[in-house]
């Protein structure tokens, strides 16, 4: 009962603070609703970025990957720091100079309206089919398990899961659809504090559990028992081979932190460029510390349970249940619930923005006043949330959640990144090249990962069976070597798409060179020390890899 009361109390406190912080914002205008009145400061931007990124698909999924593969999966966190620095120095000044509300708006100015529409549609499809359902499913698994909802309500596991999905979906929709971006960002910032505190408690109690009550003894025991699992470069057969850092991994990071609407929208809402850059750099520094929350618990779970869990995605919830004192479970569940809501309502708010600005205003009712655009954006948000709630239970058999999410995202992430890079790096590549690039990139990736890869893997495993190979570790290596890793495929397609677009630009260039205009909506004087701080962060990441390389 104490756990439930603390859960309800903390969640209610966040809602009340968010209400009072946003009640003076004019949410009948596009800037007010979609960008919080362009008023966000560095701390709010960093907190919102952290919580938008961190949810149960990250906390549960990445710790599950660490349970299987060890420290090398930290690449998803540490390389993010470099991508955020690049965004702060190179991309954000260009976004704010153009006064953008959505990333696809730039594509309309650089190429044409249909390019923007295709990109917005790809974003929205990815959100409703993949991202929103995964967030709802993984969050519901965690909440249902921590509160033992099946036993508490005397229902089946499946029914409990559905009830949690709809509970999270409805509450998250209220924040995102009716509160606008500022409500989302403020609630994110409060929950960020709780997540950092609660997230650090898990590895602390976990290390104490394996170190006879002493944290540093536990860390010593962990490193002594399996020193090879602390190798930052990893080994063959892993989810994230070390060489992917130099191919598709960095591209995925650049797409996510530099062009993905759900993330970059926080920086677009900055009161000025300097605040936006400081917010991004602060978030970048926090990502370096991310493995403490997102990787270390999975490695502790491997040692604690002696690698005996039936599924790697059980590593984090089982460790929480085993080591966290009972009185703290309610607080931690509230923090985790806040992280779930954050990711869900952030994606939903970005979806509402994309629909309202890029589709409704552009194609359905060009004369619509801003109040009408906001109203229909909210209606679309409700429909999207309902669709995600219906799809979420179907994710149950998707396998490794984190890996599944990253691989599926490749359908739209690399094509979108390609046309944005070409858009800013060239002046005469035409709109037809962008359309070809984004459509060919998506189709080629789908053919590669969902037709060619299964065929090659199947043939390799059949060959192994014919040779009498049955050892699981050998079969895993054979499967990994049968076809290029999906991150390598992303890099290959990125280069191929760029080449295609440049060739089209050479033979069918724009009639006039593109020149970006300064809208003067945002003051764009940069943060004085943005480059120095950025270089320091990059050197820190490189130093971490060198230190842990074996």
What attributes does this structure have?
single chain; 550 residues; mainly alpha; Sodium/glucose cotransporter; globular; membrane; Na/solute_symporter
Topology of helices and strands:
Layout: H1 2-22, H2 30-34, H3 42-53, H4 56-69, H5 75-97, H6 103-110, H7 113-147, H8 149-153, H9 157-210, H10 215-225, H11 248-258, H12 261-268, H13 273-288, H14 291-294, H15 296-304, H16 315-323, H17 326-364, H18 370-391, H19 401-425, H20 431-466, H21 472-481, H22 486-507, H23 530-548
Structure description:
- By secondary structure, the chain is an all-alpha fold.
- The protein has one domain (2-400, 527-548): Sodium/glucose cotransporter.
- The protein has helices at residues 2-22, 30-34, 42-53, 56-69, 75-97, 103-110, 113-147, 149-153, 157-210, 215-225, 248-258, 261-268, 273-288, 291-294, 296-304, 315-323, 326-364, 370-391, 401-425, 431-466, 472-481, 486-507, 530-548.
- Helix 9 (157-210) crosses helix 17 (326-364), helix 13 runs parallel beside helix 23 and helix 20 packs antiparallel against helix 21 (472-481).
- The longest helix is centred in the middle third of the chain and has 54 residues, at 157-210.
- It is globular and about 70 Å long.
- The N and C termini lie far apart (48 Å).
- The relative contact order is 0.18.
- The model is unreliable at 26-37 (pLDDT under 50).
